[in-house]
Every structure is written in C-alpha cells, then in structure tokens.
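Input record, target 12 of the design panel.
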C-alpha cells in the first residue's frame, strides 16, 4: 500500500458536490503523516483547472502548477473529502512548499481556525 504525504498531488475519482456523478480529477492530500499511516484513508482537497470557478474562502491559485504535475494553471479548492488511499490512481507531483503553506493558511480560514 502506498502511503501518501501532505502536499502530494494525486489523481482520484471525485464525486460532484451534488452527488450526481463523479470524475477523475487532481486533488491535493491535506492529511498529515499520522493520519495517512494510521488509517486506510486520506483527506484531500479538490483541484480545478477552471480559474473562474465559484470562489470559496481559502482557495489558492497554484503558482508552481507544472511542478505539481498539473497540465495547466490550477486552483486548489477548500472543497474537502475523505477517500480510501486504495482508490487513488496515481501521484502526479507535489505542491511547492510556498503553495502548500499558502493553501494551508487558506484551509485554516475556510475551517474557521483563524480570521481572514
């Protein structure tokens, strides 16, 4: 079993938020090492290439999108899901440390852990 790390960009089937279907999409792993090693699951946040997507508090435009294994400029969204690691198709890359730090701050805002 592959253990994924926080900041890994992966390809995974993601349900639409209205549960009408799913699509193979990139996502960033947001759960930490203890979570990822101690459970069969990982916490992920969706990534979209639609830079005009409905904005959510804490979303982050990925600066180093090529290094993350993405095909075009993309947005890490604060739309979270829990998935079994076994359904992840493959690792595409990883977020640059600055992108990961900025997105981590955005997640704190989205979850109400800090003020905007």
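The sequence produced for target 12 reads:
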């Amino acid at each position: 079993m592959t253990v994924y790390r926080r900041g890994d960009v992966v390809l995974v089937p993601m349900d639409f938020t209205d549960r009408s279907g799913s699509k193979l999409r990139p996502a960033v792993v947001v759960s930490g090492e203890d979570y990822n090693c101690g459970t069969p699951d990982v916490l992920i946040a969706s990534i979209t290439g639609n830079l005009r997507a409905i904005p959510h508090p804490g979303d982050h435009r990925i600066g180093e999108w090529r290094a993350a294994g993405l095909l075009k400029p993309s947005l890490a969204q604060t739309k979270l899901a829990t998935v079994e690691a076994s359904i992840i198709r493959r690792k595409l890359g990883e977020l640059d440390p600055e992108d990961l730090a900025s997105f981590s701050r955005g997640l704190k805002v989205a979850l109400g852990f800090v003020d905007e």
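The mean pLDDT is 93.
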